[in-house]
Amino acid sequence: MAQKDNRQLVELLSTWFKRRDEPNIIAVKYAEFTGTQSASVASGGNVAITDLSISHAMAKSTNKLLVLGQAGSVANSDGYGNVGIAIAAGGTLLTVGTSVGSRIAVSAGGLNAAPTNYITPSRTIVIQYSPSSTSSITYTLNAINIRNATSTVYINRTETAIDSAVYARAASTLTLIELEG
Predict the structure, then answer these.
(1) Mean pLDDT: which of 94-103, 151-160, 170-179 is highest?
(2) For the sheet containing 123-129, what is the strand order?
(3) pTM of the entire structure?
């Protein structure tokens, strides 16, 4: 699904923030992905999630950006749900953990203990970002392979695609909220 410009949401959030003496909301942009995606990803590598890409130019270089990313379900071809997520700005991952030794840096995600085709955890992150620029930047929600080998990463579905009630289909979203700085 294409990026949306939610004027009603801007008005609602602006009203909510003004009641709490918070900064004004300048813009809200939203994208969603309700389909499924699979991609072969190297260990520690990442792939942008289909349709979760928003280009945005800040109104002022001093403004802040609140970025909310949510992957409805993630899985991989090893029977684990070992897929992390992170927001990327212009292709660079933002707010990821410090990678120590062979550990893989993500914003959200982790090791699931036992392999099963049913593991499809959701992942959610919220970050504040200050691009200090009014140039247009493309933001994406990326999936990261948290395995020590190349794996197929699945978005919004389980590893197994059998038509059964136990195999969920999910939706993923990306929201940008520009706040007056």
Answers:
(1) 170-179
(2) 4-5, 25-33, 172-179, 64-71, 123-129
(3) 0.86
